[in-house]
Amino acid sequence: MKPAAFAYLAPTTLGEALAMLDGVQDDGKVLAGGQSLVPAMNFRLARPATLVDLNGLSELDHVSGDSDRGVVIGALVRHAAFHAPPFEGPLAELLAKVVRDIAHYPIRQRGTFGGSLAHADPASEWCLVAATLGATMHLASVAGTRTVAAADFFRGTFTTALAPNEILVRVDLPPLPAGWRTGFYEFSRRKGDFALAMALATLQIDGGAIRAVRLGVGGVSDRPRRLETVEAFLAGKPPTPATFAEAAELARGAVAVTADIHASEAYRSDLLGTVVRRALAEAAA
Amino acid sequence: MTWIGRSLPRLEDPALLKGRGNYVADHAKGALHVTFVRSALAAGDIVGIERPAEGLVFTGADLDGVGPIRPVLHRPDYRAVGQPVLPVERVVFPGQAVAVAVAASAAEAEDLAEQVFIDIDPIEPILDFDAALAADARAVHPEAPENVLVEGRLETPGFAETVASAHAVVELELRSRRQSAMPLEPRGGVASFDEATGRVTLVASVQMPHMLRTGITDCLGIPESDLRVVAPDVGGGFGQKMSLFPEYVVLVWLARRLRGKVAWIEDRRENFLASAHSRDQAFTVRGAFAADGELLALEADLRSNVGAFSCYPVTCGVEPLMAFGELPGPYRFSQYKVRSRGVTTNTCMMAPYRGVARPMLTFTMERLMDKAAAQLGIDAVDIRRRNLITAFPHRSPTGVVYDEGSYLQAMEAAVAHVDIPAFRARQAEARRHGRCLGLGVSVFSERTGYGTPVFAQRMMGIVPGYESVDLVMDPSGNVEVRIGASPHGQGLKTSLAQLVSDEVGVTPDKVRVVSGDTDATPYGWGTFASRSIVISGGATKLAAVAAATKLRKIAAKLMEASEEDIALEDGYARVAGTNKAMPIPELARAAYHQSQRLGMPAGIRESGFYDPAGTFSNACHICEVEVDVETGGVRIVRFVVVEDAGVVINPMIVDGQIAGGVAQGIGNALYEEMIYDDDGNLLTVSLADYLPPTALEVPDLEILHMETISPESVTKAKGVGEGGTIGAPAAVLNAVADALSPFGVEINVMPATPERIRAAIRNAKVPADA
Ligand SMILES: Cc1cc2nc3c(=O)[nH]c(=O)nc-3n(C[C@H](O)[C@H](O)[C@H](O)COP(=O)(O)OP(=O)(O)OC[C@H]3O[C@@H](n4cnc5c(N)ncnc54)[C@H](O)[C@@H]3O)c2cc1C
After folding, report:
1. pLDDT band for position B710 (50/70/90)?
2. Ligand 1 proximity of A33 Cβ (cutoff 6 Å)
3. In whole angstroms, what is the distance from residue B211 CA to residue B204 CA?
């Protein structure tokens, strides 16, 4: 469990990093928190010839904005920054709730927001947040910066719209101002393990009916999924257990779930319904 | 005031906590690194091995004259299978080491290993007992055409009539999935050749250094004196590190061949693939009960998947024969019919893991009691009251003799502590709100500290059991205790120091225990089977008593008093009824430097030897859980242990043993499972897939002690190393079953994963939403 040999580059500016990455192209990889890449290298599942270390780029390590305007999250911001987000409101509450299900405390000190999205583990909590809320990704290369919507960013298991010479530099989360309620439910084998299934819901309830809703699920298929059809079903309905049970059934129908050693398709599909119901119920509570 | 009974902080801890521990990897400096090239297939014939043009790579063909590892059991039903150190003809499990690459660093050795191509003609692997025992099954080894390596059978004379006349027969089919002992530190060894003496020193992360030396030198055909084995600090073993593995033979062979130093530090993936597994068992039992709940007879068909080889030295009999002999547990019945088989397959070898067969057999007996209670309409605690052994010594139907214990009293103490009626009220209330709480009881015996009298009955070619201790007081009055046991995390050095201090009269910090070095310690068996405090402790106590006797003689002589009047305490020899006293260091000096005055042999050097028949600890675990019926998730709410391990020498250490054991038992019950796919690929090769419980899954334990004194232990202590692991799975799983009782589902598989629990609920007679 020792990595294959690799070259290591430590740029101090984004420009430098982009030029270095462009120089090595396909054989290069950027190193952020290293919490996914380094184990993969030790198993020799990843064998980059060159690592471009982003940890010297303090320009990527900041959070700005708030729940009303939306937030901008630099790619190098660590998970742990959201234990107590530097802003308030429903978006902050949601991120603070979600972060506690990401791995364990030491991993959250190193792992980065951008690394999670770029890595695109199907069970990543941040990927679920990005997909459900409709984040915008900023992808930089020597040619300039482009933006990609979450819906187009996640392409499959560990696969994104990032080109080999691109770096994800920032992620914009849309506003979630006062009045939105949030719910998140994850089921994993042990605390800190990757989710076997998880759901995230944001709701506005007015006059006993759901007025606006976003619903997404993660850990169940090759990528996080926002469930627009279920959202459409929920809109205008009363936020009751019966509504949520029906929504759960619709969600199960909408996703072709994957199987692994911890959950067969049947079990994961069953869990999918449960996490959707619980996330909605929490949001409505 | 005695040192025994005090929670003395462990003498081992300051170094370990400050990162000053001395583990095998700390010895690798200056060594060449070794990577084993392992079979990617579970079974097949080796057609050829292609080596790179450059670099040091060795295969079985190079190991000229190196014999196989061949554990022996003198039983007619035993099929001896030799394990080639590096196979040349065929591979029989995935991950089997076939070649070895040597380079300047571990990374370069891995690079080199990647260039070795093992061409294997695949054979369809046999992975489980059903496939292995099928009528037309291929033989995994030609030596064992039926794929059964060992088989025990017994039927007591009155069995059939007793079953026929019983009021009810309760049947269970239980399964324990394959698990790993998973020590935090995987295996590893550093072997270095000494040009001056021609000897090799092997520093290795092992539990049985003397045994390892015997095994390796037997394979290599060299005298034991040509090899020194050192076990430094060892980061956990749990039985996995008590067997001889091919890797160690290769390391010593390489050091001799290269006349140099080689290091192999195992990684987690290798440890999961190719060290040892355990607990892959299927038990079918039928208990015949009287109407009042008395267990009259038990019939058992026990199968253990022992993997591709028999482990050395204890053999593949360790799980099946322990299951055969100890299934009756703490219950009194006389009619027993049992068949227990060790079945060979193309999977990693089974070796002992803390508790060995007992987590499964306790799960079996405790499920049986609960199921019979439910079937007969008796309370689960009452049925145990009716059946637990209360008269000692008790002789089980297999001839196992249980010494004094407190099976019933420990259960009563646990039941009282838990307050079951209060729990039942909470449970009923929770059920009204759709929440499922459950309570599970587990009563068990833990056979500990057994010496050659017991091991001899297993008829192993190598019969372990005794321990020897050499104790020296140096001229400054400090004590050095050289032991054959090989502690690796148990705090034994502290416990032994407490024992010695009470006899010799010096404080424990003046007692240094030396272990794990075949050059420095008497031949002994190492640390396993909850034996060390009983056997090595017994030998230590005997040596310490002898040393104290000599000290008293010297003191009597120097202070002109009578020997019987000398008390050794607080660093002094005092004459009773006077104010005469001498510091113990002065006596020690006199023993060495003024021996002409004493009229006895110079120095203070005594040995102890102890080889007991063994003593049973006992305990009752009670666990409370909450089951989330919609996900199948289980949360442990409360865990109570009433443990009787005789005299508790260091309560903190004993509680630590219990806590660690219970944590592993919780892992066994709910989380841990080694999984092969149908092609024989191991899917659980990292800690992302093999899931031991973490601190977040293990509740705070409530531990209570009882103290039954047994004549079978000179220290009055009983072993406590395995009990937590033995009892916890049954307590947890009975609690899960109790929580789910409204659904009428059974819990028959451990680990009871969320998926299994949820599936049971979905298939329940009573629908989950009802
Ligand atoms: C025991 C354990 C448990 C875990 N549990 C969870 C969990 O429950 N949920 C969860 O979401 N995660 C979990 N993780 C993963 C963890 O959150 C990682 O931190 C995260 O997936 C990757 O972030 P990183 O900064 O460590 O990225 P790295 O490991 O450094 O990189 C990951 C990949 O992303 C690429 N990359 C990184 N940053 C960028 C960038 N800015 N632009 C382009 N490419 C980039 C790298 O080249 C690499 O391919 C766990 C990890 C461990 C070790």
Report:
1. confident
2. yes
3. 12
- Does residue B1 register a pLDDT over 90? no
Q: How big is the CA angle at B548 (ends B545 and B554), to the nearest 5 degrees?
A: 145
Going from N- to C-terminal start, the domains of chain A cover: 7-53, 66-173, 180-284
Please indicate whether, in this complex, the C-beta atoms of A190 and B696 are within 8 angstroms of each other: yes
Q: Nearest CA of chain A to the CA of B692: how many Å? A: 9
DSSP string, B243-291: S--HHHHHHHHHHHHHTSEEEEE--HHHHHHHT-BB--EEEEEEEEE-T
Number of residues written out for chain A: 285
Residues 6 or more apart whose CB falls under 8 angstroms from that of B425 comprise none
pTM check: above 0.95 = yes
HEC letters along B160-193: HHHHHCCCEEEEEEEEECCECCCCCCCCEEEEEE
Residues of chain A with C-beta less than 8 angstroms from the C-beta of B633: 187
d(CA B670, CA B674) in angstroms, rounded, equals 13
Residue-wise pLDDT tens digits, B296-332: 999 999 999 999 999 999 999 999 999 999 999 999 9
Whole-complex ipTM: 0.96
Fold of A7-53: 3.30.43
Nearest CA residue ID for atom 36, ligand 1: A115
Of the candidates B269, B691, B762, the beta carbon closest to that of A190 is on B691
Confidence label for B766 from pLDDT (cuts 50, 70 and 90):
low
Please check whether residue B694 touches A, CB under 8 A: yes
Q: Which of A5, A187, A274 sits opposite B107 (nearest CB)?
A: A5
**Alpha helices (H) along A25-168:** 37-42, 90-99, 105-110, 113-119, 125-133, 150-153
CATH superfamily of A180-284: CO dehydrogenase flavoprotein, C-terminal domain (3.30.390.50)
Whether A32 is in the pocket of ligand 1, judged by its Cβ within 6 Å, is yes
CB pair distance less than 8 Å for B267 and A1: yes
> Are the beta carbons of B754 and A44 separated by less than 8 Å?
no
Tell me the fold of B277-388+403-452+613-763: Aldehyde Oxidoreductase; domain 4 (3.30.365)
Residue B240 tokens read as: 């996995």
State if residue A37 touches ligand 1 by the CB under 6 angstroms criterion: yes
**pLDDT block averages, 10 residues each, chain A of length 285:** 96 97 90 97 96 97 96 98 96 97 97 98 98 98 98 97 97 97 98 97 96 97 98 98 98 97 97 98 97
pLDDT of residue B767: 57
Mean pLDDT of B168-177: 98
Q: Which CATH code fits A66-173? A: 3.30.465.10
Mean pLDDT of chain B: 96
Helices (H), B699-765: 723-739, 754-762
Mutate to test the pocket of ligand 1, among A107, A129, A166, A196 (most ligand atoms within 8 A of CB): A107
- Specify whether the CB–CB gap between A241 and A281 falls below 8 A: yes
